[in-house]
Write a structure and sequence with these properties.
Layout lengths: L2 E4 L3 E7 L13 E8 L1 H11 L4 E7 L4 H9 L3 E7 L5 E7 L5 E6 L8 H8 L7 E5 L5 H10 L3 E5 L5 H7 L5 E5 H11 L10 E5 L5 E5 L4 E5 L12 H14 L4 H15 L12 H6 L2
Parallel strand pairs: 1-4, 1-8, 2-6, 4-5, 8-9, 9-10, 10-11
Antiparallel strand pairs: 2-3, 6-7, 11-12, 12-13
Length: 289
Amino acid sequence: MAIWNLGSINADMVYAVPHLPGPGETLAATGPERFLGGKGANMSVAAARAGAHVCHVGAVGADGRWAIERLMEYGVDTRHIATVPGPTGHAIVAVDPAGENQIILCPGANRAISDDMLGRALAGAAAGDSLLMQNETNLQSQAARMGRDLGLKVCYAAAPFDAAAVHAVLPCLDFLILNAVEAGQLQAATGMHPSALPVRHVIVTRGARGVRHFDTNSGESRDFPAIPVTAVDTTGAGDTFAGYVLAGLDRGMPMAQAIGLALRAAAIMVTRHGTADVIPDLKDVSDAR
């Protein structure tokens, strides 16, 4: 089995600040540090480090060769990452002493993926594989329909949240991951509680309160507590969780076991500064038990 990730690739420029800036405020910061990032790249690295075969579908600019090489180093199949005109996507990330962050995102090449690139990539997918998407690239609705028609398990991480983007892919989804704020926004936009969405599996991440899983077929829900740690940087924790969950399911784990694995990985992640480059591997997660 394989996970096909239509995902963003960014250079994350991370600055440590004394507190998150307010309107009109100028702050002195340390750094910057450059990390491989983007929700797509983070999830690809997490899933690969969790033992899945991950094929990343995306684009970088001519300045992004380093990002492709870094993904390869972390075990991601990069054959379907194209180099296109324009800059590689990048993010400006401010992190305060409590680990909370504020992010400004420039999509760049992430919004320049062509239909032809997507079609060539998914031609290699097999029924039963997973297709993962986030709201940082173009072609999400096209990919969702294509994945459904190919018999793939279509998964969507609804961030950055946009109600119209979720609406466009919702009929094709098997699995939806969103945080508590996004779940509230989606309920306001659709009038549907997460348990009533037309998606088999819905996971709502709730930070230090853990996660809640809804099986909409059975009508059952279950809470999973977070693992208590002292956070220094929450950037990428949700992406790490998503990648680990999907990798666990791809490897045949029951949902509860996959969620438990992902919670341990996310707990480790928030104790580290950075994004894709510091996502824990399976040995880290096993040793932390």
